[in-house]
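STRUCTURE:
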């Protein structure tokens, strides 16, 4: 099966996002570092999720099926959030889940730096599913959307959400 590859740049905001949500103007900087997502269709009943940290060390490995996504009965915060995002995708594009996949993410920055491990994931999954990334962000994490702009550009910009 053919592998699909997606990439999103990290982000940096020179003020707090809450002030942007209140209408302030802020400078947003796309980072050179980002996160990639590879998706490969496989045979079998279980999807596989493998997340790698910047040093190529495995961070998270999950095997799951559609029922687990829809029920989302887990105490693991990572799985809860991932299943929430995948459920939104399922609700918009159920035909995608007629297959099973290996999803593989690779961070190029430390996941504790705040450069957008979540927003790059949202943007990459939006590219894969062909869903509006702003819709996916709003339905999952919320926010101003500046990070989604950063994910797909290399140019510094000002943002305001009035």
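SEQUENCE:
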């Amino acid at each position: 099966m053919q592998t699909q590859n997606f990439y999103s740049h990290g982000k940096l905001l020179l003020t707090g996002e809450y002030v942007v949500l209140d209408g302030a103007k802020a400078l947003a900087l796309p980072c050179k570092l980002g996160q990639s997502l590879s998706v490969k269709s496989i045979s079998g009943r279980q999807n596989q999720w493998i997340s790698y940290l910047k040093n190529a060390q495995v961070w998270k490995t999950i095997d799951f099926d559609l029922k687990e996504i829809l029920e989302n009965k887990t105490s693991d915060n990572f799985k809860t959030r991932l299943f929430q995002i995948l459920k939104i995708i399922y609700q918009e594009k159920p035909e995608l889940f007629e297959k099973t996949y290996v999803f593989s993410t690779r961070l190029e920055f430390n996941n504790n730096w705040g450069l957008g491990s979540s927003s790059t994931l949202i943007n990459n999954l939006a590219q894969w599913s062909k869903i509006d990334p702003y819709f996916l962000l709003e339905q999952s994490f919320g926010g101003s959307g500046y990070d989604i702009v950063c994910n797909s550009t290399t140019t510094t910009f000002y943002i305001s959400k009035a």
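REMARK: The longest helix spans residues 77-92.
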